[in-house]
Predict the 3D structure of the following.
Amino acid sequence: MIVRRRLDEQTDVVWATPTSGYGHAADEQPLPYVHRAGEELTPRFGGEEGIACCAPESVGLPRGVLADLWPLAQRWFNLGRRPVNRDWRNVLRSRSRRDRRFLFAHQLDFRPTGEGYAGHCPLLSFERRFLVRPGAVRVEDAIAFLRPVRFSMLDLVVVPLFAEWSVEGHSGRRLECAGFRLTAASPQASSAGTAMQWVERLENASFAAGQRLERHYTYRWDAGP
């Protein structure tokens, strides 16, 4: 589901409910695409999946690597979830990858909500909400762990930004976040150009059933004429 919000005569904000791994990376827009006065302020997603900076890992959703073998409940959940409408080479690929890569974009089933979307799987649930106002979009993420799980690495926040943007700076285009820090990780590419992925990375992280994490961050730009 694609949602469009018109802020004013010059500015549109668009996002889309993730395809739960049934689509191509170019189908994804889990973070706000801001188009103002003919200019793309934030990245679109897409490109050839064979290129690392266009692969599903580059999509703006959490991602990690399991520290242990795939839990049986997640294996059963993934058993019949084949990406049938993607390239035929992917049809026989299991979502329970040998490298234990856990991409929220592929491991959760997503559905639209009033102002965002939510996804679930046997291990956890994830919800993202967008609060749109003049000159800003606030993103509110929440993860609730349904079973104990350990990650050798977890990128809890993944936000691609063009070079014109600063993180916690004072420029006309900036991403504001409180209570956590983002670091530059790797490039993300699409037909909109090349961006840098900024991430909050946790190492050797363990979570208990019932534990909940929240992250809030705001895209802010000069909304003047």
